[in-house]
Amino acid sequence: MFEVVVYETEEGRAPFDEWFDALDTEAALKVTTAIARIGTGNLGDVKPVGQGVSERRITFGPRYRLCFGQDGQKLIVLLTGGTKKRQSKDIEQAQACWADYKRRKKGG
Fold first, then answer.
1. Distance separating alpha carbons of residues 22 and 70, to the nearest angstrom
2. pLDDT tens figures, 44-88
């Protein structure tokens, strides 16, 4: 079992939520199902993409991607979402978010 949380910037922005809120209903349901499965420990089709970030792939529509970091054994931090078309930009953004998360967690 994992606790799944959404990363927020120091300014209170949540890149994952901003992406999710723009999805249509069918895509949002697919993403919500994937997140629920992650919470139960079923990570599904996941691959590491570097710098501590992993990508959960969803084979639907434009091939959605959820980028996340794992903090310890129980916490999954959703960083960004995107599609195969924007994959490299989404991963780059997720890596920057993860670096910021870790820096702020350490207090500096």
1. 25
2. 999 999 999 999 999 999 999 999 999 999 999 999 999 999 999
